[in-house]
Amino acid sequence: MRILVCVKRVPLTGGKMVLTADEQALETRHLGFTISPHEECGVEEAVRLVEEHGGEVTVLTLGPPEAEEQIRDSLANGGDRGVHILTDGSEWDPQATAAAIVEAVEADEAGGGGFDLIVFGNESADAGNYQVGIRVAYALGRPIATGLKGLSVADGTARCEQEVPGGRDVYELPLPAVVSVLEGINLPRYPSVPAKLRARSKPVEQRSPERPAARLEKLRLVVPPGQGKQAEILGNGADAAPRVVEVMREIGVA
Amino acid sequence: MAVLALVEPGEELSLQALSLARDLDGPLHALALDDSELGAYGVETVHVAEHEQLSSYAPGAWAACLDQLVERVQPSTVVAAGTNRGNEVLAHLAARRDLPFAANCAAVGSDGTVTRVRWGGSLLEEARINADLRILSVAPHMVEATTVNGGTANVERFAPELGEEIVRVVEHAETPSAGVSLSEAKVVVSGGRGVGSADGFGMLEELAGLLNAAVGCSRVVTMAGWRPHTDQVGQTGTKVAPDLYIACGISGATQHIAGCKGAKKILAINSDAEAPIIANADYAVIGDLAEVVPAITAELRKARS
Ligand SMILES: Cc1cc2nc3c(=O)[nH]c(=O)nc-3n(C[C@H](O)[C@H](O)[C@H](O)COP(=O)(O)OP(=O)(O)OC[C@H]3O[C@@H](n4cnc5c(N)ncnc54)[C@H](O)[C@@H]3O)c2cc1C
Ligand SMILES: Nc1ncnc2c1ncn2[C@@H]1O[C@H](COP(=O)(O)O)[C@@H](O)[C@H]1O
After folding, report:
1. Which chain B residue has the Cα nearest residue A184?
2. Cross-chain CB nearest to A233 (options B126, B128, B286)
3. Nearest Cβ partner of B229 from A183, A214, A224?
4. For position A245, what pLDDT does the model report?
5. Rounded Cα–Cα distance for residues A38 and B218 (Å)
6. Is this complex's ipTM strictly greater than 0.90?
7. Touching check for B178 and chain A: CB below 8 Å?
């Protein structure tokens, strides 16, 4: 199977959201970067499918030059090759992101053969647009199931399981297909040191399309109120227990 | 101009979406799949879609119904709840029409701007939808579902033209529920890296048992394999809204807070008085949770005997 997984570089924000002066982005000077847990699970799911059925996992990102780090991390977790759609670091809206991914997929498929499966996160960690995968599926004319907590492939069909209140819903998609997954579908592996070293020399192709005008146009970011209240300290260590129980009584839970 | 809203069967969050939608523009139309009583929520006309392709959930079929109603009703705005299905169907509609879609809006301005939720609620974005038809979903629990006086809706049966949908629910498996559910528990006792091991959760379970509480955890805990992902609270886990959330050995990363800030009260038990969780909590105990948690359990037992 040929599988493509799409991942997005996002800052690891820690305990507080801090904006840049122009309110267009998070202040990231002191932060590390990662991808959404949903996408980590997407990479793991793709690698497991290829371990089972044979084939190749391609990891794609649209982001600044530094986003190669997230491609390499995913290659260390079992991906075989990368596609990097370069940006100048400004955010692309979901329509533009999807269009660039579609272009890259079509170019890649013309050279290397079709992708049986394209895997997305259910939503990106930062923007949460809930749509890039669906747009890509429409543009390519392929079926899509979203929010999966279970996935298996047999006889050219992907069996897709979604958690819903009280149980699971099942979809069956003929390949080639597109899916989006949720954290919890698997427990991703930790990369070994040799795997990290190998990832450094795996091939990553670059593309540099023009950024179209945003149709969902970010004007500014706002930190919601509620950050930074001051807790009432009920005490230190085990001695605090009587006061804790008192508080539980006050709020009616004990 | 009119506003068109998607109403999911039995979905409380759809009623929140209607409560926002009825003030956006002209008359409110709703697409429903059953005879819901929607007049009380300000709906003027309910279009009840009837077609065999709608017998089980198929996002493409729901989007096609909306698409056809857009032609009939000529709305300025299409709205749904920011649920899994609401967001999915609107994304399908937006993809069909190559229009922008703003997911999880907390507020909508009259000038085409929206305030949308990012990072699972830890950050807001003011954005403009550059299109004549605005497609947006309403973030859960940002707007109250309220009724209006004396509303009754016209009901119109509507037979959409639908092709065969490949992507549909073909099977549903019930899973028996065990214990107190995390999302509905009145008290959640939650543990993070500070709990130290899978076994360490024993003392949290014991406290939870006394309080009829559910046990939750942070992502560090699920990644370590100490607890299943179904216990994870946060942006990519479960969102909880108990009366009391007890965070034991959890630092309070924004992605964790995104899952527990719906709690009425938060009690943090942490050895570090500077941990970010303290600035998000109502009460705190500073100390080693391995001493504090069993002491609380013992105190509760004493008080009850
Ligand atoms: C896109 C994205 C999504 C994410 N989604 C989630 C999510 O859904 N849920 C989630 O939880 N995380 C999520 N994370 C991870 C999150 O950023 C943090 O890494 C995680 O929440 C930290 O878990 P923790 O608090 O258990 O561990 P740590 O941050 O390591 O904190 C451990 C805490 O325990 C305290 N401690 C240690 N020993 C003791 C002791 N003996 N007694 C008392 N206190 C002690 C320490 O002082 C510290 O405050 C996400 C991250 C990203 C990037
Ligand atoms: N810049 C990007 N690069 C690669 N994949 C992306 C990018 N943005 C979004 N995606 C993919 O699309 C999914 C849904 O994103 P969104 O529609 O923004 O919520 C993400 O989980 C990723 O799999």
Report:
1. B229
2. B286
3. A183
4. 97
5. 15
6. yes
7. no
| A4, A41, A85, A132, best to mutate for ligand 2 pocket (most atoms within 8 Å of CB) | A132
Burial class (CB within 10 angstroms; exposed 0-12, middle 13-18, buried 19+) of B51: middle
Instruction: Indicate yes or no: CB of B175 within 8 angstroms of CB of A174.
Output: no
End-to-end Cα distance, chain A: 55
Confidence of residue B7 (pLDDT cuts 50, 70, 90): very high
At A22-73, the pLDDT tens digits run 999 999 999 999 999 999 999 999 999 999 999 999 999 999 999 999 999 9
In 3-state terms, chain A is what percent helix, strand and coil (to 5)? 30, 30, 40
Q: Quote the ligand 2 centre to A36 CA distance (angstroms).
A: 9
Q: Is the pLDDT confidence value at B69 over 90?
A: yes
Cβ atoms < 10 Å from Cβ of A112? 12
Euclidean distance between the first and the last CA atom of chain B, given in angstroms as a whole number: 65
CA separation for the pair B49, B33 (Å, rounded) = 5
pLDDT value at B298 more than 90: yes
B186: CB partners within 8 A, 6+ apart: A253, B212, B213, B242, B243, B244
Residue B37 has pLDDT above 90, yes or no: no
Average pLDDT over residues A221-239: 89
Q: Which residues line ligand 2 (CB under 6 A)?
A: A 6-8, 36, 38-39, 60-63, 94, 97, 120-121, 123-124, 127-133
- Helices then strands, each counted (H, E), chain B: 7, 15
The average confidence (pLDDT) of chain B is 95
Dist. CA B181–CA B230, nearest whole Å:
10
Tell me the pLDDT tens digit for each residue of A87-130. Answer: 999 999 999 999 999 999 999 999 989 999 999 999 999 999 99
Instruction: Enumerate the β-bridge partners of residue A49.
Output: none
Could you tell me if residue B244 is left (phi over 0), alpha (psi between -120 and 50 degrees) or otherwise beta? beta
Question: In angstroms, how far apart are the furthest CA atoms of chain B?
Answer: 68
Q: In this structure, are residues B101 and B91 in contact, taking their beta carbons and an 8 Å threshold?
A: yes
CB A96 within 8 A of CB A214: yes
pLDDT the model gives residue B11: 93
Contact residues, A window 80-119, toward B, CB-based 8 Å cutoff: 93-95
Q: Are A150 and A185 in contact (CB under 8 A)?
A: yes
Residue B236 is classified by DSSP as T
